[in-house]
Specification:
Strand content: under 5%
Number of domains: 2
Structural class: mainly alpha
Order of helices and strands: HHHHHHEEEHH
Shape: elongated
Number of helices: 8
Largest sheet: 3 strands, antiparallel
CATH superfamily of the largest domain: Intergrase catalytic core
Length: 196
C-alpha cells in the first residue's frame, strides 16, 4: 500500500516535471484531467487522489492544495436483459422444481439471491396475489409466479422456509441458489442459447 502511494506521488512529479512540493492547486487539477484523458480507470485515479491527498495534507501540511481533487465514480453498466426465450430456457435448465421456482421468483419479482433464500411460506398471500419480502426491495404483486409457486408448494410442502435447505430447519443458502443459477445458465447456453 505504501509503495502505491509513493508510486502515485512519483507519477505526479514526473507529470509536473519538478519537485511535487512546488505544485499548485491548478497543477493537481491538470494532473487529474490528464489521467482522465489518458483513459486511466476510476480505481487508479481514485488511488492517485488518495495518495496525493495524504502527501499534501499529512506530509507537506498543505491541505488547501488538494481541495479541487474529486473522487471519480465508475460508470454503471446497463444490465443484460434476457429475452423471453432465454428466460424460458434458463428456467427449463434449472436443476429441479425447487430451483426452477426460486429462479422464477428471483427473476419475476426482481429479488436478490439472499431475498429469495430468506422467503418464508407465509410471505405468499395467494388471495391478494402478493409476495412479501422482509427487509428487501419491498412488496411486489406477482400473479404470474403464483402457479409455479403453488406447484412447488404442493410438491414439497415446505413448512417455514419457502425454499428450504438440505435440512428443512434452514433456508437454502444464497451460495446454493447462485450455483444453481450458474448451472442452469450453463445448461441453457449448451442447449443453444445464442447470446452471452
Amino acid at each position: 500500500m505504501q509503495k502505491d502511494y509513493v508510486r502515485h506521488v512519483r507519477t505526479f512529479a514526473a507529470f509536473l516535471g519538478r519537485s511535487p512540493d512546488t505544485a499548485t492547486s491548478e497543477d493537481l487539477r491538470r494532473f487529474q484531467l490528464h489521467m482522465a484523458q489518458q483513459q486511466i480507470g476510476a480505481p487508479t485515479i481514485n488511488a492517485a487522489i488518495a495518495a496525493l491527498r495524504f502527501f499534501f495534507t499529512v506530509t507537506l501540511e498543505r491541505p488547501d492544495l488538494v481541495r479541487p481533487l474529486r473522487i471519480v465514480n465508475e460508470p454503471r453498466k446497463a444490465p443484460v436483459v434476457l429475452s423471453r426465450e432465454e428466460v424460458a430456457r434458463l428456467l427449463e435448465a434449472a436443476p429441479g422444481l425447487k430451483y426452477k421456482a426460486a429462479l422464477s421468483v428471483a427473476y419475476g419479482a426482481g429479488l436478490r439471491v439472499s431475498e429469495v433464500a430468506n422467503l418464508k411460506v407465509f410471505d405468499i398471500d395467494s388471495q391478494r396475489m402478493t409476495l412479501r419480502v422482509e427487509q428487501g426491495k419491498g412488496q411486489r404483486d406477482r400473479y404470474e409466479l403464483l402457479e409455479l409457486l403453488r406447484e412447488w408448494w404442493w410438491a414439497a410442502r415446505p413448512q417455514v422456509w419457502l425454499f428450504p435447505g438440505q435440512n428443512s430447519i434452514n433456508p437454502i443458502t444464497p451460495r446454493s441458489a447462485s450455483l444453481s443459477t450458474r448451472s442452469a445458465t450453463s445448461r441453457a447456453r449448451w442447449s443453444g442459447w445464442a447470446s452471452t
